[in-house]
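queue> pop job 88
queue> type: inverse folding (structure -> sequence)
queue> payload:
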């Protein structure tokens, strides 16, 4: 079974379309989206509609929650000052420029998805198994904390998003993946990122795919709609306020 996981599109339709085109060439059997369709980018409405049209199983991210319910905060770990101002401005703009139908769809998204393939149990969350929307599980999250959030998880593989940093870690006899970000990478690589996991007779192989897209077009749209220029700079640099790295491809013999 060849499965795709992607998340954190953040209103970046150019990046989403590039990823969808790349997926078509990968002989994929199932696709899942781990949330944050909206926020930051200039086309939240179009991204929501694209995911709806394709009927991709999707879980809720913190931005989907904040915009769907028209909240005053996304719950992000912003630094005080300009970073907070940009985040708040982006959130308010996205609320204004997302239809009632799109907000209803965002509110309808589940917080988790679970399934089993080839005897391997998967759990999908945006943040962590403990705090589905807001907790960041990063490459540098302590082993003690990782063990704590996994202690009641029955799945063999956990896939999350939220940090925008592609990652794979092993703890408590489980694999923990972060699928990176389609529309707002933060690992120093501006290319869109998504994750492929192959499961064959309880053996797992994985690949983080990096896909070029028209960053310039998205930056121009950010300017045209009046969003802060800093949002475009993050896309050009491929990093925000955090950095991380991960291997691009590997195989793990994972026997239950």
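queue> result:
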């Amino acid at each position: 079974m060849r499965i795709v996981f992607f998340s954190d599109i953040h209103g970046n339709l150019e990046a989403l379309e590039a990823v969808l085109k790349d997926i078509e060439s990968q002989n994929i059997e199932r696709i899942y989206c781990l949330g944050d369709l909206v926020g930051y980018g200039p086309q939240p409405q179009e991204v929501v509609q694209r995911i709806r049209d394709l009927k991709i199983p999707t879980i809720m991210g913190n931005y989907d929650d904040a915009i769907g319910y028209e909240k005053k905060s996304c719950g992000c770990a912003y630094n005080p000052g300009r970073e907070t101002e940009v985040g708040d401005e982006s959130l308010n703009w996205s609320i204004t420029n997302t239809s009632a139908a799109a907000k209803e769809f965002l509110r309808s998204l589940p917080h988790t998805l679970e399934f089993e393939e080839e005897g391997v149990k998967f759990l999908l969350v945006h943040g962590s198994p403990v705090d589905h929307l807001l907790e960041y599980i990063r490459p540098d999250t302590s082993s003690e904390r990782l063990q704590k959030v996994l202690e009641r998880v029955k799945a063999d593989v956990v896939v999350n998003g939220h940090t925008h940093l592609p990652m794979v870690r092993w703890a408590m006899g489980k694999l923990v993946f972060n699928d990176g970000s389609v529309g707002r990478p933060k690992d120093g690589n501006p290319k869109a990122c998504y994750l492929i996991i192959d499961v064959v007779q309880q053996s797992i192989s994985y690949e983080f795919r990096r896909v070029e897209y028209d960053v310039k077009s998205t930056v121009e749209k950010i300017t045209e709609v009046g969003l802060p220029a800093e949002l475009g700079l993050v896309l050009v640099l491929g990093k925000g306020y955090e950095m991380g790295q991960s291997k691009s491809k590997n195989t793990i013999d994972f026997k239950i």
